[in-house]
Write the structure tokens for this entry.
Amino acid sequence: MTSSRAEHDTVAYTIENRVAWVKFNRPEKRNCMSPALNRRMGEVLDELEFHPDVGVLVLTGEGESWSAGMDLKEYFRDTEAQGLAGTRKAQRESYGWWRRLRWYQKPTIAMVNGWCFGGGYGPLFACDLAFAADEAKFALSEINWGILPGGGATKVAVDLLSMRDAMYHAMTGELIDGKKAAEWKMVNESVPLAGLRARVEEVAGVLLKKNPVALKATKDAVRRVKEMTYDNAEDYLIRAQEAANSFDNEGRKEGIRQFIDEKSFKPGIGTYDLAKQKHTA
Ligand code: ACO
């Protein structure tokens, strides 16, 4: 038996001013991730990735929770009852959309409005940027119910936090609030819940003014070079820019033109006007 909410309704989204606001939408279950939600989220990411009206994707939660992690009943108990095939299928469905989100075409922002537990660290890490409410609560609560933080959660903690903070967080399962998450660099910033959406809209607005080809190349580069030697990174970055040029060969030329010839902006303190570019990808 799965919960009564139709699979299609486990995720909700609206598109406003070129921002897709995607919501975990099981508030009655604190937005924990069931196989149905994971499947639907994969479809929604497909629907939005190359949608012409979408420039930025924000991932947030309906109600008082961002995501209470994996659904302990539907993701763990029910799929384990189907044997290894059921477990592996459920893992593919969840890890699959987190991986897609890590390498998403559009810039992504996690807007953490409330509870964020365990498996929720996968999509949290997958988003390029993260903003939390001061009131949000985070924990690697796996240890509290007798497992290690799997599904990438330990890797997320170690990648984002200092070794001591990651170890304490994973071993104690204690809650931290949004302010502490920002202090630990798990999120970019935390602000009072009442101002969270406005702050995220502001950041999305900044991203919407940037060259989209350069943004995709940049976000991929930040994730990729972390694992490379300096020389490998230097080589990758040269080739990544040259590959980006094949999607948009005009952007950087237009940026130089507006600064050097037109003198209409200064790259040190602003962004070139994309609207004047003839061939924006
Ligand atoms: N899995 C399954 N059901 C869940 C989950 C979950 N992760 N989280 C909440 N629910 C369900 C509850 O069972 C309850 O269902 P019911 O109404 O049918 O009884 C409903 O959602 C509401 O939950 P409450 O516990 O009543 O809500 P409350 O606001 O009091 O507490 C809280 C919220 C703290 C988030 C609590 O629900 C909780 O501890 N959830 C589990 C968090 C967690 O540790 N998740 C797993 C992380 S580890 C991992 O993801 C691998």
Q: What stands out?
A: The chain has a mean pLDDT of 96. Residues 212-276 form one domain. The longest strand covers residues 11-16. The chain is about 45% helix and 15% strand.
